[in-house]
Amino acid sequence: MTYRILPIIFFLILTLLIDSASAGQSMTLDMCLKVGMEHNPSLTASRLSLVAAGQDTKASRADFLPSVSSSYSVTDLASISSKGLSDADYLDQDIKAFNIKLTQILYAGSRVVNGHEKSKLMEKAVKAELDLKKLEIIYNIEVTFYKLMKAKQDVISATESVSRLTESVKSAQAFFQKELVPYVNVLQAQVDLADAEEQLGIAKNDVNRERVALFSLMDQPLDPDMEFSGGLNPMIGDAPNFETSLAYALENRPDIMSLLYQRSAAEKDADISMGKYLPVVRFDAGYSDQDRDYVNEGVSYGVAYDRDQRNRYWSAGVSATWEMFDGGRSWYEKEKHLTQAKRMDALIEDAKNAISTGIRKALYSLSEARLRIKSAADAEIAANEYYTGEEMRLKAGISTIPSLLDAQGRLIRAQGNKTRAMLDYQVAASELKLFSGNLSDTRDK
Questions:
Q1: Which CATH number does the domain housing residue 383 bear?
Q2: What domain range is 90 assigned to?
Q3: What is the per-residue pLDDT for 212?
Q4: Least C-beta-crowded within 10 Å: which of 12, 122, 236, 268?
């Protein structure tokens, strides 16, 4: 009986050890970014698009190499009827034929070269789009992580508020029982406590929402035991210069690079279309083996002879084909691709305007949040001191319940202003990195 229980005990101990180990797991922002870069489905799809674009480039290289084709056929030719002089080729026979042919394009109006160059440009465009997707994923993970940190801080502040207001309600009830304050003070404290409890519930729900969003961005199953740590306090440095940030963005922003590559690819398409008006020169070399096996012998002047034939030969030559007129199809294809190139120019200008606007807004937000953080921190210190003083004055009987509740409200507002300012600063910093095209923090090496 003891031997049967031992495996069960061992399994329970192992389960407890695993649970205790997983309960202590914690992820920082860097860890979240690393996991997101590795597992986010949209990034995975973009990487596969890049692989496919690379395969297109490799496939286009095949046009520089010769093509080899071969054929083998077996034909049974059976005559049904024959009148007049019979052609030996149409008498009953078995035909076996083998052919192999090598073809090398010597010149095709630069279409082969331009096609390969276009494939390489499109591969670079897809790579740039992958980099843009990385920027967006980094931005989304950072913003979600910071919102989660703010929500956790809001939970702490709301919990402290509920605790303070609970004591305020008790104090108000005690003073009311001693007929030192009117009942309206008790009601005020109870209303403020109910409001704080509601804010605590909202803050907890915000934590849950941001956790779900963060796990989704990382493409990880929701783990209730996983904790996220790192805080919300920003590292405030000197404000970046707009001109420097814009110049960096115009050189490194992936969407601009992608559009430039697509514009060059459209020009290559135009060259390919015009190349259709030029001749195509091919070199062909081949080997042929044909064996004819006639069923009946031939008769000439009363003498029978063997009709069977076998012909083997090599062939080589150069041929040129030139399509002189196609109804203007190639010309209009060229015009279409040049129009696409102009469209890319317009999209590039639109992207530059959006990037310039985004950088300006991010810098304004950074500047504003920096000032708000300083003033909110001072306000929080003053509000803490104000609340502590009112609490001591109330205990000494020289203050009132409404004054204490007013101090409590000021403290909550000061704490909320500070966390919002810190969140806004972090979000603005992430926006600046996004619009500048800064991939230096990409965790996908």
A1: 1.20.1600.10
A2: 68-107+280-321
A3: 95
A4: 12
Claim to verify: residue 181 and residue 262 sit in the same structural domain? yes
The Cα 323–Cα 276 span in angstroms is 7
Burial class (CB in 10 A: 0-12, 13-18, 19+), 17: exposed
What does the chain come to in residues? Answer: 445
d(CA 232, CA 331): 60
Same domain, 119 and 193: yes
> Which of these three, 268, 302, 321, is where a domain ends?
321
Note whether residue 238 is domain-resident.
yes
As a whole number of angstroms, the distance between CA 119 and CA 137 comes to 27
C-alpha–C-alpha distance, residues 424 and 369, integer Å: 6
- pLDDT tens column, 57-66: 999 999 999 9
The pair of three-digit structure tokens given for residue 269, joined into one six-digit string: 């398409």
Helix (H), strand (E) at residue 304 = strand 303-305
6 in a structural domain: no
- Pair of tokens at residue 176: 């009311």
Backbone φ, ψ for residue 79 (5° rounding): -80, 135
Tokens 């008006």, residue? 277
Judgement on whether residues 102 and 215 belong to the same structural domain of the protein:
no
Same domain, 287 and 266: no
Asked if 280 contacts 109 with a C-beta cutoff of 8 angstroms, the reply is yes
- The answer to whether 61 and 34 have CB atoms below 8 angstroms apart is no
Q: Which of 137, 369, 383, 361 is nearest to 234 (CA)?
A: 369
For 145-212, give the DSSP string. HHHHHHHHHHHHHHHHHHHHHHHHHHHHHHHHHTTSS-HHHHHHHHHHHHHHHHHHHHHHHHHHHHHH
Residues 237 and 285 grouped into a single domain: no
Q: What are phi and psi of 277, to 5 degrees?
A: -85, -5
How confident is the model over 274-292, as pLDDT tens digits?
999 999 999 999 999 999 8
pLDDT score, position 84: 62
pLDDT tens-place string over residues 331-349: 999 999 999 999 999 999 9
pTM of the model: 0.81
- Which residue matches tokens 């729900």? 205
- Residue partners of 429: CB distance under 8 A and separation at least 6: 234, 362, 366
The Cα 69–Cα 20 span in angstroms is: 67
Distance CA 281, CA 294 (A): 40
Q: Which two tokens stand for residue 311?
A: 């012909």
Q: Are residues 249 and 292 in the same domain?
A: no
- Rounded to whole angstroms, what are the CA distances from 169 to 34, 154, 299, 385? 48, 22, 129, 21
**Mean pLDDT for the chain overall:** 86
Q: Does residue 144 form part of some domain?
A: yes
